[in-house]
Amino acid sequence: MSEYPAASAPFHILVKPIGPICNLDCQYCFYLRKEALFPDHQAAAEFRMSESMLETFVRQQILSNPASRVEFAWQGGEPTLMGLDFFRRAVELQKQYCPPGKTITNALQTNGTLLTDDWGKFLAEHQFLVGLSIDGPRELHDRYRVDRGGRPTFDRVMKGLNLLREHGVEFNTLTVIHRELAYHPLEVYEFLVEHGSGYMQFIPLVERIIGGNNGSGLPILGQSSGVAPWSVEPLQFGIFLSEIFDQWVSRDVGRIFVHTFDVQAGIWAGYPSMVCIFGETCGRALAIEHTGDLYSCDHFVDPHYRLGNILDEPLGKLIDSPEQRKFGTDKRDTLPEYCRQCEVRFACNGECPKNRFITTPDGEPGLNYLCAGYRHFLNHIRPDMEIIAKLIKNRIPAAEIMKIRRSGNPNLAERNTPPRNAPCPCNSGRKYKHCCGADSKK
Ligand code: SF4
Ligand code: SF4
Alpha-carbon distance 303 to 374, whole Å? Predict the structure, then answer.
């Protein structure tokens, strides 16, 4: 048996090669304060993942993951602070330890401000998928995303974005929906489309004001006295997603990818959720710090949720540990009755446990802070998602939804796309190619 036995099922790990260290000081960032986890680190240099730890991690991540495609997801802090040589070495090690039949991919989440031509060349050559953090147009972006001197960062991020485009690096955008930004859905969406984001992730900002700490300076999870003023308002979050969805579903399906919409399309078509937050259980998306300490999840990097260190126990064993299994099943087992009875539970499942800190109308604890928003959004998309689900099941491109909406005939989703010269299934009496199939190239 291998020194590093495979875990029982695929998993995903966010790697923090430089811990929480960042060149920016975004006011809403929950990860910056994780410096408190390492009280013996005196200087920023001590937060760097050593070369031997990198090798141990790369080897274990490849050998322990039963998936045929293993993704390395580099995150921070700001991972580019590690410098290019660190990533060159990571790619070398991946090649060295990758057995036949496995594929390795790399994803890098960055604020984009330190990217140079050399980075652009490297990222393109090694086909890194880059996630660029950008909060929409200048005023909304600079509202919270500032550097350590409190200066705005928009121009530096746009320079990074353009550099990625120039070098042909595949990238998506990650936008944090903070309180003000939530009131500008179409402005944000159109800005991202205009600047070449073909794949968007929208992350709701929910940060709690905490009453105490656990001695390490970190908040005690489960004790909250409210949310920070930059947190998105729950219903406005749902309105934000709904307005973007309406624009997307009428114009951009198949051309622009919005992560939440993609995931929901799969769920409505009857597939398991592609992301942990909408799944019934979780526990297969973990985080590892530069020291080799493994935590249950990126949102639970806290001593209570430290599973162990990969120098002491193999990664696969830590991931399959009873503690981690319980972490994952607790998501389902602690769901309030209010959610169990909810008409959109199948698509929400109470979302992420980190946000479950309000009470239900009948006083049960553990309801998700964003509930009103999710309920609004998921009911809002129902008519279109039911059609998209049929398209997916019938193996018709989801983009057909746009024609179906224009035709006003949802039955078109029931059939396979007819030959271009056949009568149009909308019963207009015209040929399909001159009617609902007018945009079709088939
Ligand atoms: S706690 Fe939330 S983010 Fe973490 S694995 Fe579970 S659902 Fe995913
Ligand atoms: S929409 Fe609200 S009630 Fe329904 S499952 Fe989600 S969090 Fe629970």
Answer: 31
